[in-house]
Specification:
By secondary structure, the chain is mainly alpha-helical. The chain is built from two helices and no strands. 93% of the residues lie in helices and 0% in strands. The longest helix has 30 residues, at 28-57.
C-alpha cells in the first residue's frame, strides 16, 4: 500500500506541474498532459480504495 501512496503522490506532482504550465503559460499541450494525468490519478485512487478496504478487513 505504501507503493500505491507513493504512486499517487508522483502522479499528482506530474498533474500539478502540467496544470500550472497550462494556467500560467497557456500551454495547450500541457493541458492535455494534465487531463491524462488526472485519469491516471483516478485509476490509482480506485486501486488505493480497494487496497485500503482489503487492509481494513484483515
Amino acid at each position: 500500500m505504501k507503493d500505491l501512496v507513493e504512486k499517487v503522490a508522483s502522479l499528482y506532482e506530474a498533474f500539478a506541474k502540467e496544470a500550472k504550465a497550462q494556467l500560467e503559460n497557456g500551454n495547450k499541450a500541457a493541458g492535455t498532459r494534465a487531463r491524462k494525468a488526472s485519469l491516471e490519478i483516478e485509476k490509482a485512487m480506485k486501486e488505493f480504495r480497494k487496497a485500503s478496504l482489503d487492509a481494513s478487513k484483515a
